[in-house]
Design brief:
Structural class: alpha/beta
Shape: globular
Distance between the termini: 57 Å
Number of strands: 23
Largest sheet: 7 strands, parallel
Helix content: 25-40%
Strand order of the largest sheet: 19-20-18-17-21-22-23
Length: about 500
């Protein structure tokens, strides 16, 4: 196994692939101090004020002279990021990806032409006031049906919103919940309201758009004597409607896959994220769909995405995506570079540019074909960008609400979190996959131990096909299923 990696020949730092000891000679450099796995050390003299280069790109500036063999991190490196920038469309040629052989998976065909990779019953509260009632309805139903025959589980997804919200927050909450109601991974849904909330049921139904009336029930708790009994009765009706649902062959290209990272470390941009980038390119080659989000973790790498925009319109939308999020930080009096997290830093990520250049590795090299803003739905195949923050729970919720059937989630530190769709944890290092076997679904860490990207890509494609066909992810096995709705405004 190699002990370190110089990612680009233009780099002036190397990344430790294992723990290194002061005095060791690595890449022809004598180390002046111990270097933790994932952290950087200097391989060329860097003067104070000079740029530090990793991935062949600038990740910040030196705050003092850095000697060859010295640890490069928070103590001698700072971000170069600032506020809004002016951008120019300078397109680059992207690979013309085309693969004729498309795998099939076993999924559920819905009446509206969409497919689902799960057939579950969901209870969706329109307001947080009925969270406990939603849970009890699910509990009572499961007690009556300890051995489900027609669906793969019955779940509710609680949240604190739906009332005392105004403006964008109110509309966003309504739209996201409506998108959950129409998500094809659910075979049937009960929408549960209180009756006096801002997120009124009549308006919710009127603005929901087309939906399968046989698979969606609406219940207002204040309108019935016992909302628990009535809720269970409504679930019984939906359960009966799912009797004939069967998995059928569908093309993998019909499955929309979200791309996310959380708890990143210094190997994220070397193993798991580039692997997802290759998977994203593969999906583009079969006319499939992938979605990259976490807009603040594009800061510092955004021009690389802009250069791959399909056309001027997509470029302009990426610019809006980036600058709108910077404005969101600024109007709240916060610097746009208040990132990476403490865990990221402990793992070797020093600046937001460092984090972003690793994060955007998940996008691969293909053309950016679409940009989706708040409350929008995916309507472009290929690689899409989705508005939203980097917060794990919010980002996965946004991805699923936009139409993703599953999310590939890379992590170097580990997290048990899962969204309301299968959330596949891909470890960046083998030690994590061995330490947290109950969290990690797929290990990409062996890429630095001799495994090739080609063989790991095929393994990942095979695994995604199995998950799409019904194999449970660790978050599903552990029943770790959460949602978080993004909030930007005041609470009344």
């Amino acid at each position: 196994m190699k002990k370190s990696i110089i990612i680009s020949p233009n780099d002036n730092v190397s990344v430790a692939l294992t723990g290194l000891v002061k005095g060791e000679v690595i890449d022809g450099v004598t180390l002046l101090e111990d270097i933790t796995r994932g952290h950087k050390f200097c391989i060329k003299p860097i003067k104070a004020g000079e740029k530090v280069i990793k991935y062949g790109q600038v990740i910040g500036s030196a705050t003092r002279d850095i000697a060859v063999g010295e640890h490069v991190h928070l103590q001698n490196l700072k971000t170069d990021l600032s506020g809004e920038l002016e951008y120019t469309y300078n397109p680059v040629e992207t690979p013309n990806l085309k693969t004729d052989k498309v795998p099939t998976v076993k999924a559920y065909k819905r009446k509206n032409g969409l497919v689902g990779i799960r057939n579950e019953l969901w209870v969706i509260p329109t307001v947080g006031c009925v969270n406990a009632q939603a849970k009890e309805i699910v509990n009572r139903f499961n007690q009556k049906h300890p051995n489900l025959e027609y669906v793969e589980g019955v779940y509710t997804f609680t949240h604190p919103y739906g009332c005392s919200q105004v403006g964008e927050d109110h509309e966003r909450t309504k739209k996201l919940l409506q998108q959950m109601v129409k998500h094809p991974n659910a075979g049937g849904l009960l929408v549960l309201g209180l009756g006096c909330e801002n997120n009124r049921m009549d308006v919710f139904k009127e603005t929901l758009g087309d939906y399968d009336a046989e698979r969606v029930e609406f219940l207002i708790a204040q309108d019935v004597e016992d909302e628990i009994v009535e809720g269970v009765n409504r679930l019984e009706k939906l359960y009966e409607a799912c009797k004939t649902d069967k998995r059928e062959d569908v093309l993998l290209s019909q499955i929309k896959v979200g791309l996310k990272c959380g708890g990143s470390d210094g190997l994220s941009g070397i193993t798991a994220n580039p692997l997802l980038g290759r998977f994203s390119d593969y999906m583009a080659s079969i006319n499939g769909t992938t979605v990259l989000t976490e807009v603040p973790e594009m800061f510092g790498a955004e021009t690389l995405l802009m250069a791959r925009a399909k056309d001027q319109q997509i470029f302009d939308e990426i610019v809006k995506l980036i600058n709108d999020f910077k404005y969101y930080y600024e109007k709240n009096g916060q610097p746009c570079y208040e990132n990476p997290s403490p865990g990221n830093k402990a793992g070797g990520i020093s600046t937001l540019e460092d984090k972003s250049l690793g994060c955007t590795q998940k996008s691969g090299n293909s053309t950016v074909c679409g940009v989706v803003f708040d409350g929008g739905q995916l309507n472009s195949t290929g690689l899409n960008l989705l508005n939203g923050p980097g917060n794990d729970m919010v980002a996965v919720t946004n991805l699923a609400c936009a139409g993703c059937h599953m999310v590939l989630f890379t992590t170097g530190r580990g997290t048990p979190f899962g969204g309301f769709v299968p959330t596949v944890k891909v470890s960046t290092n083998t030690a994590l996959s061995q330490h947290k076997k109950n969290w990690i679904d797929f290990n990409a860490g062996d890429i630095v131990e001799g495994a090739s990207f080609e063989e790991k890509l095929q393994q990942l494609i095979d695994y995604v096909c199995r998950v799409a066909s019904g194999e449970k992810t660790k978050n599903e096995i552990n029943n770790t299923r959460e949602i978080a709705l993004f909030k930007t405004g005041v609470t009344l």
